[in-house]
């Protein structure tokens, strides 16, 4: 039984870290959308049709940045751990170990949400 517990813990850890195998190129960032609430403020469980699509995501990986015409690297405006506002459409969908991620260019990010 201890071996089974260890195997399950190792498997869930591997799934949680699957995105670390992906390295964004140039000015691209890898994000995972913030999960939508399944309950309303009053505690009512919402059906899928009533859930609003979330336009916020957590940055998981960031590329080195793009080069300008002089050959200098333009620094990225986002960093790993930022909560960002993403556009409703666009980006590239990526599935790793049954988890859904999205890739955007740094310039496509609408804004960064700051903690209060």
Largest sheet: 6 strands, antiparallel
Structure annotation, total helices: 1
Shape: globular
What are the low-pLDDT stretches, counting only 5+ consecutive residues below 50? 1-15
Strand content: 25-35%
Helix and strand element order: HEEEEEEEE
* Share in helix: 10-25%
Structural class: alpha+beta
Provide the residue-averaged pLDDT.
78
Radius of gyration: 17 Å
Spatial order of the strands in the main sheet? 6-7-1-2-5-8
Number of DSSP E strands: 8
Please name the defining characteristics of this protein.
116 residues, alpha+beta, 6-stranded antiparallel beta sheet, two-stranded antiparallel sheet, 1 helix, disordered N terminus
Structural features, described:
The chain has 1 helix and 8 strands; from the N terminus they run αββββββββ. The strands form 2 sheets. It has a 6-stranded antiparallel β-sheet with strand order 6-7-1-2-5-8, with no helix packed on it. The chain has a two-stranded antiparallel sheet with strand order 3-4. The longest helix has 15 residues, at 2-16. 13% of the residues lie in helices and 30% in strands. A hairpin with a 2-residue loop joins strand 6 (92-96) and strand 7 (99-105).
